[in-house]
Structures are given as C-alpha cells and as structure tokens.
Automatic annotation (TrEMBL):
This is DNA-protecting protein DprA. GO terms for biological process: DNA-mediated transformation. Residues 105-315 form the Smf/DprA SLOG domain. Gene3D superfamilies: 3.40.50.450, Winged helix-like DNA-binding domain superfamily/Winged helix DNA-binding domain. InterPro entries: DprA (IPR003488), DprA_WH (IPR041614), DrpA_SLOG (IPR057666), WH-like_DNA-bd_sf (IPR036388). Residues 330-382 form the DprA winged helix domain. Belongs to the DprA/Smf family. Pfam families: DNA_processg_A, WHD_DprA. NCBIfam families: dprA (TIGR00732). It comes from Microbacterium schleiferi. It comes from the Bacteria.
Amino acid sequence: MIDPQRARDELGPLVAGVLSDDDVVERYARVVWNTLTEPGDGAAGILTAAQGPVEALARVRRGELSDSVLERGEARLALERWEPRMRPGAVSAVLRTARAARLHLVTPADEAWPDAADDLGPHAPLVLWVRGDPRALEAARSGVAIVGARAATAYGEHVAGEFAAELAASGVCVVSGAAFGIDAAAHRASLAGGGCTVALMAGGLERAYPQAHTELVERIAATGAVVSEVAPGSAPTKWRFLQRNRLIAALSAATVVVEAGWRSGSLNTAHHASALGRPLGAVPGPVTSAASAGCHRLLRELEATCVTTAAEVRELIGWGELTGRGGGESAPRTTDATRVRDALSRRVARSAQEVARRSGLGVADVQSHLGLLHLDGLVTAESEGWRLT
C-alpha cells in the first residue's frame, strides 16, 4: 500500500493544485511505474489502463498477474522485466532529483496532459516530466516537429532556421529533440523569433544532452518546455532515443524532415508520424547529397508532401492554403469538424458537453459533427461518451 502522506511529502511541488489522497496516491503509483518500465512498455500500458495504476502496481508487487488482462506468457515476461527494478528507495531518489531540478510531473489526470499522447494507445507514456511551462504541451499539439540529421549541412540548417523562424512568427509552436544539427537550428530560430518551442529529450531532465546544449535547453525551458517520459536520473540510450521519436511525432500536428541520410534516426520519427496519421513533409535536396537521401526516400516510399517554404509547412496543419512564394489569401485554419476531432481522445470517452467545452463550439454543433464523424467511422459512441476510433 502507498501511504498518502508520504506520497504527498515526496511529490511536494512536483504536482499542481490541491489534490485528494486518492489523486496523490495515483500520481505516486505512476512514478513507481515510471521507474519500473522502459518507454513504450505495452504491457504496463494495458495493465494500468485496465486496472488503474494503483491496483495494477499492487498486483505486480504480489506477483499476481495470472488473472490479468495480459496473456500468461506476456505477464511472466513483464514481471521478469520489472522485478530487477523493484528496489527500496528508487522512487524516493527519483523524486529528490526531480525536486532539485524543479521539474513538473504531468499525468493523464492533469489538465496540462497532452491528449495527443493518447494516440499511442498502450504505448503512450505513463507520465511526462516537464522543465519549464507544462502549458506548452498544448501549444505543441497544433505545432510542427522539425527534425533532421545531426551532421547537417549548411543548406539543411539554413532551411530549418528559415522554417522555424517564420513558423514562430506566425504563432506555430516548433517541436524538436535538442540534438546537434537540424534540431538545434530549429530551436534557436524559433527562440530568436520569439515563438514557443518544445524539446523532447531521451534522458532525465536534470541535465542537458548533449551537454554542449546546456544553455540552449535552459533557454527553451525559460519560454517553452523541455519534456521527457523517462525518470530523472535516467541516461539517454539508443532505445530511449528511438522511443522519444514516437513522442515527437505524437505530440505535434505534423512532422517535417529537413535533412536525413538513408538510415537517419529522423526516418524513425517520420514513420511514427505516418503510422499515427499525422501529416508528413520532407524537404528535397540535391540528388547528389547523401544528407538528403532519406528525405527523397520519404517522398518516394511514404508519399511525404514535398515542402519548400514555411507557407507550405503551415498548409500541412491547415494554417492557410498552399500559396507558394507569391503569397495570397489564407484559408481558415481548421474546420469545425477538425476542432471536434481534436477535442476527442482514443483512450478516454468524452461526453458531447465535454467536447463542446474543449472545442469551443456549441453542444448542438458538436452533436451534429459527432453524428457525421460516426457515419464516416472516425468516432465510436459508448455509454460514457464519444471516442476516436
């Protein structure tokens, strides 16, 4: 059992608002899960969704997963993964590090939780750690991820900077991974343009990675947010970088790959965006440049949209029609049906009244759009409300 008072004391300033004992215990249980699992652990996602993080944790501690929603073999393998991390004091150490780094803990029960993360289903993060303003997560939902090669060329960094600066000036949040090359160029240009930018990290947020970007990460946190799903104190590993990429794709409205080699890690982000149904753009480069081979591959194999200007990037997310360099009148940013879909979740069913509150539309309009979306097979009606298919 988790002691509510001890949980409250250890969470301290990491959580926002006045919370009941049950709310505090649930958040603490999620931190325990965060220390037991690696990012994207589907078994943990299924268990916590079906039984709640507190009850699921109690069963794991007792080793009683035989009657759970997991198949027997899957349950056995999951316990074998988690058991070595069940160390006394591990959670307390994580929370001490988080408090010292002045982080925020954001869970699905918090208002700042990005519903877009729920599109990852059982592989969605159990918690998010935020350095900076958690409200920036909402801005990221309508923003653009700009990613690309670490060993970027001058051409790639120039294009990334131009895109990010213009997007920031028009109010579009820029999301990236704070790495060398394209990521850094996008973040710096967004900051220079006075816009919001969000960095997704593969390790604990108590220190920057790469270390050379310590000042850049501090600047991002000062005006936007630096985010990670791994517990403070965790080292960035290859697996965590690959899993981090799915979050970059999920938390953004669209992903644009500026420069990428044939086997670039940015292609991993692009594939996640495609699998999630997010718009995907790629910047063409010289056919003789190995640094653009991955972008050309995306254009050919994933049918990514060719983008050459910030206006074309904005068109990916519905911010005005495609006008090219000559300019022209802008179209509406989104339709009302898009606003209704954005207000829904794949994980949590919501009433028409709740969808109306989140979308800013009237209940009657929401019900009309829900009916049409239901006919198109895009939403399902349940006893608790409406959910994205």
